Amino acid sequence: TDAIRPLIAGNWKMNGLKASSAEFDAMLTGAAEVTAKADLLVCPPATLVAAFAEKVRGKAVAVGAQDCHPKASGAHTGDIAAEMLADAGATAVIVGHSERRADHGESDLFVKQKAEAAWRAGVIAIVCVGETQAQRDAGQTLDILRGQLNGSLPDGSNAANLVVAYEPVWAIGTGLTPTAKDVEQIHGFIRELLTSRFKSEGARMRILYGGSVKPSNAAELMAVPNVNGALVGGASLKAADFLAIAKGC
Ligand code: PEP
């Protein structure tokens, strides 16, 4: 009954050298088996975006990036503009990942500006939200998510230009995952917020689950209502695991 086409997105984080091309090639080879069911996106470090984008020409795999700066150019040493990512061949960019929110103090407003920058460059924004363990323990999960979504999603978000990724911080890289019941409740809550703000577009936006997704739990998580794919960290580094997750859709 869920007509939204799933997206399986890999976030390589700060992993990957030129030699990682072989693993990416293996993903491209295996992708043909899974792209009937789901869209596939790999977000390598920025240094590999251009080389990987060359490889996906004519293939059913897209290449994305992990962050962008709100501005198109200027005096921002070390930052990368969305226009530069688009120029390198990226078609999507992750913004507001919890590691960037934590490591770089990124606010909801800054994340929203990055999402708008992505659109300006013609790139899809994948906006990440999620509560910490302490917030969860304090019973604040839904309030935190409401605040992050209200603050990080720009007006004008639609099903084609924006993807939401729900990533509980305590589940990222820990091997812990929420129960399917918890995921259903939270994704249902996010869906309500999206439809109340973005109407029919909000009803069609993809809401990814992220946090310790692996081949052994992917099918159960992907079957949860309002879960429209996954954002995968560690398990996206290995072609066999990443493809097995996509097959679980
Ligand atoms: C992530 O950081 O986006 C993520 C989901 O990581 P992992 O799959 O390794 O938990």
From TrEMBL:
Keywords: Cytoplasm, Gluconeogenesis, Glycolysis, Isomerase. The active site is at residues 97, 167. Its EC number is 5.3.1.1. It holds the Pfam family TIM. GO terms for biological process: gluconeogenesis; glyceraldehyde-3-phosphate biosynthetic process; glycerol catabolic process; glycolytic process. Its main location: cytoplasm. Pathway: Carbohydrate metabolism; erythritol degradation; Carbohydrate degradation; glycolysis; D-glyceraldehyde 3-phosphate from glycerone phosphate: step 1/1; Carbohydrate biosynthesis; gluconeogenesis. One of its GO terms (molecular function) is triose-phosphate isomerase activity. It is found in: Cytoplasm. It catalyses: L-erythrulose 1-phosphate = D-erythrulose 4-phosphate; D-glyceraldehyde 3-phosphate = dihydroxyacetone phosphate. GO terms for cellular component: cytosol. Substrate binds at residues 11-13, 173, 212, 233-234. Belongs to the triosephosphate isomerase family. NCBIfam families: tim. Homodimer. Involved in the gluconeogenesis. Catalyzes stereospecifically the conversion of dihydroxyacetone phosphate (DHAP) to D-glyceraldehyde-3-phosphate (G3P). This is Triosephosphate isomerase. It comes from Bradyrhizobium neotropicale. The lineage of its organism: Bacteria, Pseudomonadati, Pseudomonadota, Alphaproteobacteria, Hyphomicrobiales. The gene is tpiA.
